[in-house]
Amino acid sequence: MSGRVLGPGRYGLAALAEGDVIETARREVTVEMIDEFAALTGDHFEIHMDAAAARSHGFADRVAHGLLVLSLIDGLKNQAPAQFEAIASLGWDWGFAAPVLAGDSIAATITVTELRTTSAGTRGIITLGFEVTNQRGETVQRGVNRLMIYT
Residue ranges of the MaoC-like domain (predicted)? Predict the structure, then answer.
């Protein structure tokens, strides 16, 4: 599926088509972010907190929490010039393909893969496919988000 790259603006269901794409900006994942996420969530697993421990597990540096990366991607989606007329997220189906290390930068390509109107007819449900890449173009995460939007 390939479609148009959505330009700046807000998009309801009627303005979207399967295959439409949003490209997010890129954001660096810092050691400070990893530390703050660990403090907030209580997830202090050693690969996140200590470079030597991460190396002992086969990683080149500290590894960002997968959910930190997902959260950053959702934020990048919500800061993109092209926006969905969103009401609420209905869920995520997500996978971690490769580690995101401290100092990596991430961005996402978001593709509209499915559109439908709710039974009431005043709202829509869209399915978004995400491909998250690092600065080398390697896929590090991918998944699906279902989003309720205005028609």
Answer: 20-118
